[in-house]
Amino acid sequence: RNFLQYTHSVYIARMSEFAMQMFDKAKKKAAMVGVKRSSQRLEDEEEGSDIGLPFAPPPERREGALSIPKVAGAILATVCIAALVSALFTSGGGGSKPARAPSSTSGSSAKPGNMGSAKPGSTPPSSSDSEAVETPTSPGNNNGTSGTDMAGGQKSQVLPAASLEEKVDSKHIRVHLERLYTIALENGGNRAMGNSGYNASVQYVLSTLATMPGLSVSVHDFVVNKNTLDATKPAILYIPSISAGVTKDTDFATMSNTGFGNISGVLIPSGFDADGSASGASNGCNANGTSDFGAVAAAADAGLPVIALVERGGCFFSDKMHHARDAGAKAVLIYNSNDGPVFAGTLGSAGDISKHLPSLGVSASLGHELLDLYSSCPFSKSNVLSRSRPLHHTHSSFAANTHDAPPPTSPLHSQPRQDTEACHGMEVGVVVSGSFEVITSQNIIAETETGDDTSVIVVGAHLDGVEAGAGINDNGSGSSTVLELARVFSALAYPSSAEDVMSLLLPVANRVRFCWWGGEESGLLGSRAYVKHLNQTGQLYRVALNLNFDMLASPNYKTGVYNGSDSDKQESNAVPGSTYIMKVFTDFFDTLESPWTPSAFTGRSDYGPFLEMGIPAGGLDTGAEGIKSIDERKRFGGLARTAFDPCYHQDCDDLYNVNMEEIALLSRGIAHTLQHLATDDQLRNTLNFPLSTAASRRIATAAVYKHRVPVASLLFRGHDLLY
């Protein structure tokens, strides 16, 4: 009560000061009556112009200059509101309170328009139903659940008509998308971290934020290792035993953060001992070389260059690569499990990536073919003695396919063979060209100047894209939406018109921190570095929750809500809070009778580092490379058996690859959820994440930020496969 009274007094003081400023402004304009306006540009600069600004006020607002009668009306209205609010605070506690989300003890509200209100024609939930703890599901078009959430029974509600939801304008989001697309076109067609396109994107966001008062803006630098493939020299996999040859992107693909080299050697699968017998461990996850890589180690000890063949699954790709390297392999091929196609995973960026082996992901069919070829001529230590005849490929023939770089001389070419008709092994060539570098990249942070700084809501989206294209859906859509949210918060904190003054109904109880992350596509590098920085400086406990928005405009979309109830699968203590955040989103869509579906909470985007530290998280997405089911087509439209974003990580992810109708809906849901959370003065209790618990979250960073994150079922880091 004391906090609200204090906020009320500050609010009245600010409104009075603002009214006087408006009055002075109107007098100055009145003095100009009769004076010929020689330049419309002056008015545009004062009120907001379509030229040069990424977001301009509606034309009708620009044309209607503030007049003394308008200002007088605004002052009168402000005084009336002040009197009303004063009456509410001095009523002895028996009157109604300012509108906000109901407390955890108040249950569901039955006001019209509330998220918890029953839909026409539906049966209101019984009291027993409202006390049940359910996992949100998505039945039919009215996806979601009735009843309570795991945070203690609190029901979310639609806030008053003058809300953030109505202030968000998808036209502004479109302008940001257009500018990001132009930036990509002007910088080699992409906005990838470490490239000029990303640097230009950072400058665009910073210049846009500079027009927004009420936000404290900073840049967080972080240092990363980066490898860059040579675009003029595509990777090559040369297998003489397969006469038809193999094709890049059909049979094999280059792993992210692969090592570089030109390797010619003998192919040996994991799962075989030095004597050639099967060891029973074939996935390369056992660090003991005598178990998974016994034959590899024996061949390497004999002086043979070895290319290891490993099956996907069981552990991270980086683990497989490290274990093969420790056994003496010079390169590694990881083939897909079951009947999976070619894939490109990531080896991560931790440690010295200059020591990574050249690594390729290959299709299951090619992997099984290589296993069959190997079984006809298995390695054993007894017949490792070399051959008198050369490899199937000669230096010259191999060089013709490897950018005129001959394979290194090896014992395979020089030592005589005891039995010229005996098995001579299967030779393979791997060539991956590129360079390593250490770069400094940036995150952008913009924080409100008001609100509880021990209850910070981090709202983030990654700003970078992949090198293949402009990255407009992934993730210009998310970063543009966050930029629009920052504009709306700024406008409400520092209103520029009487209309905006009247819309400021509620104080913001919690501080909001808008973030644009770098390096997500390279493995959540920016968000991970920022969380690490907060942890090391003792500031992480101030973060109450994280909202993340990645790919909000897929053309063959689904409306996906991060499934907060899955956060227990991430070995996280953030289950109750994450489930509550999910419910605020789903209540919004349910009220509109708009379908939604749970999205896997796998740590695939920048919320992952927050979840790892036990911080509640939530967000929305519209699908990536996943295939839309027939049921999803019935509920969301579009094409079944087709990717949600057919241009995912491709050069066609451009300005024509976004669904503006879907992003308009999602931006409204995001604005509603953000206002609901930002105005909850008991947010930590609502999330079941008290400050005392948050303060105890600080743990040794070495245990968290190593190359293998402590998340049991983590499939992705960013959009790159980890295992």
What is the arithmetic mean of pLDDT?
A: 74
The rounded distance between the terminal residues' Cα atoms is: 52 Å
> What characterizes the major β-sheet?
8 strands, mixed
Give me the Rg, rounded. Answer: 30 Å
Computed structural class: alpha/beta
Spatial strand order of the main sheet: 1-9-11-10-12-15-13-14
Which runs of at least 5 residues are low in confidence (pLDDT < 50)? 30-67, 89-161, 385-422, 699-720
Q: What is the topology?
A:
Blueprint lengths: L1 H30 L8 H8 L11 H5 L4 H22 L37 H4 L33 H4 L2 H17 L9 H14 L5 E15 L6 E3 L13 E3 L6 E9 L19 H4 L1 H8 L4 E6 L5 H11 L3 E5 L23 E4 L1 H12 L19 H5 L27 E6 L1 E15 L3 E11 L9 H22 L4 H6 L6 E8 L7 H12 L6 E7 L10 E3 L12 H17 L5 E3 L8 H5 L4 E5 L8 H7 L23 H19 L4 H4 L4 H5 L5 H4 L11 E2 L2 E2 L2
Parallel strand pairs: 4-5, 5-6, 6-7, 10-11, 10-12, 12-15, 13-14
Antiparallel strand pairs: 1-9, 2-8, 3-7, 4-8, 9-11, 13-15, 16-17
Helix pairs in contact: 1-4, 7-8, 7-14, 17-20
Short description:
The chain has 723 residues and is an alpha/beta fold. It has 23 helices and 17 strands. Strand 13, helix 17 and strand 14 form a beta-alpha-beta unit.
Folded structure, characterized:
The protein has 723 residues and is of the alpha/beta class. Helix content is 34%, strand content 15%. It is built from 23 helices and 17 strands. It has helices at 2-31, 40-47, 59-63, 68-89, 127-130, 164-167, 170-186, 196-209, 289-292, 294-301, 317-327, 364-375, 395-399, 472-493, 498-503, 525-536, 575-591, 608-612, 630-636, 660-678, 683-686, 691-695, 701-704, and strands at residues 215-229, 236-238, 252-254, 261-269, 306-311, 331-335, 359-362, 427-432, 434-448, 452-462, 510-517, 543-549, 560-562, 597-599, 617-621, 716-717, 720-721. The strands form three sheets. An eight-stranded mixed sheet has the order 1-9-11-10-12-15-13-14, with helices on both faces. Strand 16 (716-717) and strand 17 (720-721) form a beta hairpin. Helix 7 (170-186) packs antiparallel against helix 8, helix 7 crosses helix 14 (472-493) and helix 17 (575-591) crosses helix 20. It is elongated. The chain starts with a helix and ends with a strand.
